[in-house]
Amino acid sequence: MTLRRFTPTPLAGLALLALLAGAAPAAAQTDAFPSRAIRLVVGFTAGGPTDVPARFLADKLSAALGVPVVVENKPGAGSMLAIRDVLSKPRDGYTLLACSYLDPVNTVLYKNPGYKLSDIAPVTLIARYDYAIGISKSLPVKTFKELVDYTKAHPNEVNYGHLGVGSFQNMVAKQLEKLTGIKMTAIPYKGAADAMQEIVAGRNHLYVGPPLVVMPLYEGGKVDIIAVTGTERLKSAPNVPTLEESGVPLVAFAWLGICAGAGTPQPVLDLLNSKIVPIVKSPEYRALVERSGSVAASSTIPEFQAVIEKSAADAAPIIEEFGLKME
């Protein structure tokens, strides 16, 4: 093999200068991040289980980065309006998403959600939460076993609320029907607050909801909670058993995180992770989410990527089995 010495020519020198000139602004932009306000888009209404921790993080992250972090609520279409908005903007770290398990699940629930799983760039987990099974006081039951017995004796007379076909409530209810042999009637609602008010009124009978939504009504004596979906009892409701303790082999939980659009520079993602994780680990944040029945949870970027992929993989067979696929 012969080695040839490379002798720079004027043309080669100009090309090299052009290449370096093109790379410099991109590098400078990454190094300067952030230099202006950051949007944090939430796909649910204000005051909900996603919005509350998102606003806390936005305030603390603003202080950590030295720029405003502005929360913007874009509810609708099972949180798809929010993620579509984020993905439509430049992938530079200035538009972030308060993401949830719904974002990967929607990629297998809908035939054309408008984005792919690979479009989601994880930053970090911020919380995970189990669900509470709230029931109306109009039902003559106090335990999950009593609910099963009553529903078997009154098939299709017990209504359960959900937030749309393929929603967490819908999928959990379908699994409970299969595991226990009961038959319930599904009633769709626009939001968790609407569903819970109908439970208080006795027109809806059951709702699988985040503790932030169910617990205040339970503590006020307006609804009962007969089980929780996690592996452990809630600290805020230590007398309420898990489904497993009630004889039902089902564990289900949801998560919240901070995401960006795929293609966001890795140094930007790393910086955001390094600033958000300490906030999530702070006693103040932990106390905030625990009051709402959630658990503070942070992660590395690869760990969060694995959670996102598993969420879609776990939901796919359930959606297929119960025919929940949407257009």
TrEMBL record:
The lineage of its organism: Bacteria, Pseudomonadati, Pseudomonadota, Alphaproteobacteria, Hyphomicrobiales. Keywords: Signal. Pfam families: TctC. Belongs to the UPF0065 (bug) family. The keyword Signal applies. It comes from Rhodoplanes roseus. Residues 1-26 form the signal peptide. InterPro entries: BUG, Bug_dom1. This is MFS transporter.
